[in-house]
Amino acid sequence: MLDLDFIRRHADRVRLAIAQKGVALDLDEVLCLDANLRSARSRLDALRAEKNSLSEGYAALPLESRAERGRRSGALSIEIRAAELNVDAAAQALQQRLLLVPNIPWEGAPVGPNDTTNIVLRQEGVPPAFSFPSRDHIELVERNGWADLSRIARIAGSRTYCLKGRLALLEQALLFHVSGRMAALGFAPIAVPAIARERAFINTGHYPGGQDEAFQLPRDGLFLAGTAEVALTSLHSGEILHERDLPILYAGISPCFRREAGSAGRDVRGLMRVHQFYKVEQYVICRADVEESALWHARLLANAEAVLRELQLPYQVVECSTGDMGPGKVRQNDLETWIPSLGRYRETHSCSTLHDWQARRARLRYRDRRGKVRFAHTLNNTAVATPRILVPLLENHQTTDGGVMLPACLRAYFGGDLRL
Prior knowledge:
BirA Bifunctional Protein, domain 2; alpha+beta; 8-stranded mixed β-sheet; Helix Hairpins
């Protein structure tokens, strides 16, 4: 959410952001609702002031005058109650529209409607050149008995998976290894639930607009989250932190759930796009300082790149366009990892800077050194998400006999074995 005063003073910049991000919102309507609310509050203040003035010198008035003032005071009480209801309705209408106002993208973001206008900044690592007919990850897991994809589909439907044997261990090893890696970098591992109330999704900016992506538990008034970011953004909601305690660095560990409502027909088979998965999420709460946010963005991105290099996976760094980055983001960089069977890179990590856009929604605040209460900045990026990362890991490290070599960093989890 943007500061309302900022919207008033920089309406043209906000209009441009709305257009660049493709948000269906009329800013003039928002400004009109703002004017209506201010007018309603002014009327309410005037009515309250008049009612208060009636009590001045009331005891010294003649009985007839007191009776007249009493009647007027009673009438004002009715008008004040109606005015209060009018203010509440106007405030609610404005708040609903303010939740749709996007953040201002940074000046280096490519302008475009979707991921087709993203820009590749650089590529790291070399895609493998196999001297044998390579297999996709589905062939590899079926050949080695590492999954039961068809059986589990009969139980849980499409976009579900069931890992077996050493691949099931590999998934757990990846989560444990990356969590430990993040802890060594100063990120506190924190295991959070995948269920949350609607307010938590509003705080992150997933709602309104992203309800179709979430599984709902209507009996309990809860939703299943697709990232630990949902819980972490609201963890300190309503508190006033101290600047000396910032930055707060979390490595959020959680199961994640997504309906994949907008991906009909894509990646139905295999492990690339599933309804339930696991993730270690880098999450930062820092001071409201643009330069500090930029430094943390670079660090989160570097942490994720280090994970991919350690796994010996070729990848590319992408600058996301205004239409692809989402409404709340100032900047987004994706890391896309090479998938041999597809002959192209696919997104495995997404690094986002949001400045105080989430913090205003979540009332995530801190007191600076001068005693001023300010909204914090938030950032996030994937550390590792599985089973998606298993796709490039299996395919890039496959051998001629249908086996898979283990990256050196994971061999200790398998007794020093070179192969999965």
